[in-house]
UniProtKB/TrEMBL annotation:
GO biological process: ATP synthesis coupled electron transport
Name of this protein: cytochrome-c oxidase
Gene name of this polypeptide: coxB
Entry keyword annotation includes Transmembrane helix: yes
One Gene Ontology cellular component: membrane
Enzymatic class: translocase
Domain of life: Bacteria
Alphabetical keyword list: Copper, Electron transport, Membrane, Metal-binding, Translocase, Transmembrane, Transmembrane helix, Transport
Catalyzed reactions: 4 Fe(II)-[cytochrome c] + O2 + 8 H(+)(in) = 4 Fe(III)-[cytochrome c] + 2 H2O + 4 H(+)(out)
Regions that span the bilayer: 59-83, 104-122
Source organism (scientific name): Nakamurella endophytica
Ribosomal protein found in the keyword field: no
Subcellular location per the Swiss-Prot or TrEMBL entry: Membrane
Length: 332
């Protein structure tokens, strides 16, 4: 009789808790909060749609883990207290075994947890890796020892272009690493950007920490069957440092670049200049000269049109140097 009473009280408690849980979930949904409004629990703040989605998944997973943790801790402390040794109590409390409902619960519950985590892992990963057929911008990223060559599809560089380190021999607008200059990859904000990666020599890795995403860059991606295309949408304007994340040789650490996420009118003006001859040099506008010119045309561009990178600076290739490389004047 006593046990039956406890069972009824127990199921009532369970019902109450699940009702409370449902109410909290409904409240969160009704308030219009999205997963990205949740606390980040140490997750860095990414700048792309994809990074935000990953953050939502991370926050949800941590909250789910905490809920499970609280339930487990609650059960632990409840049993410590409820079944503690009392005066005149028997040496051991009543031992329970072969309790089928209980065994079913603690076998099924972890499976449910894993299934839910698996579902959100797959849907988040699919979202991050999804590609649409017609991205707004196509950039080709070619890595080499030890720098980057960024080129824009659909652009046409004037014929005089002769960049010493240029990897591709096409007429596209190219931005290439120079020993004294960090290349700036100018991209429009809130547009779907497709990155097509390939390497001229060894394996490198394209990494922009603020994207919370990196992808190895292989030579001969087609022959290697490597998936060398990904897309993202940058949500905020700004400058974001980029690095090579695969140890690729002596000057691996010098493979810095900068992503400049700018409003669309600035991006269009930038590409327009890159496809014109700079009267000052009689050569096509370099990325720095084009940025400086756009900064004059569109003063609201401000620091975003700074001709030099300001999130990082070139590394001195002199091996005998006794000092760390220093930021350069007019940026970094
Ligand atoms: Cu590298």
């Amino acid at each position: 009789m006593l046990l039956e009473g406890a069972g009824v009280a127990g199921s009532r408690t369970v019902r109450r808790w699940s009702l409370a849980g449902t109410l909290v979930a409904a409240g969160v949904l009704a308030s219009g909060c999205s997963a990205t409004d949740l606390p980040r629990f140490g997750w860095p703040e990414g700048v792309t749609d994809q990074a935000k989605r990953m953050q939502g998944f991370w926050s949800g997973s941590v909250i789910a883990a905490l809920v499970v943790g609280v339930i487990v801790w609650g059960l632990m402390f409840w049993s410590f207290i409820a079944y503690r040794k009392r005066k005149n109590s028997p040496l051991y409390p009543k031992q329970t075994k072969e309790n089928l409902p209980l065994e079913l619960v603690y076998t099924a519950a972890p499976f449910v947890l894993i299934a839910v985590l698996f579902y959100f892992t797959v849907t988040t990963e699919n979202f991050v890796l999804k590609t649409v057929p017609n991205p707004d911008v196509n950039v080709n990223v070619t890595a080499f020892k030890w720098g980057w060559d960024f080129s824009y599809d659909g652009t046409d560089m004037p014929a005089q272009n002769t960049t010493a380190q240029q990897v591709e021999t096409d007429n596209k607008v190219h931005t290439v690493s120079e020993p004294t200059e960090v290349p700036i990859l100018v991209l429009p904000v809130n547009k779907v950007i497709q990155y097509t990666l390939s390497s001229r020599d060894v394996i490198h890795s394209f990494w922009v920490p603020d994207f919370l995403f990196k992808r190895d860059v292989f030579p001969y991606p087609q022959q290697n069957n490597s998936v060398n295309v990904f897309q993202n949408t940058i949500q905020t304007t700004g400058a974001f440092v980029g690095r090579c994340a695969e140890l690729c040789g002596t000057y691996h650490s010098a493979m810095n670049f900068e992503v400049r996420s700018v409003p669309d009118d600035v991006y269009q003006a930038y590409l327009k200049y890159r496809q014109q001859i700079d009267p000052a040099t009689q050569q096509p506008y370099t990325f720095g000269a084009a940025l400086a010119q756009v900064g004059k045309d569109i003063p609201s561009c401000g620091q975003l049109c700074s001709p030099r990178s300001y999130t990082t600076y070139p590394i001195d290739p002199n091996r005998a140097a006794k000092q760390a490389s220093q930021p350069q004047a007019g940026g970094k």
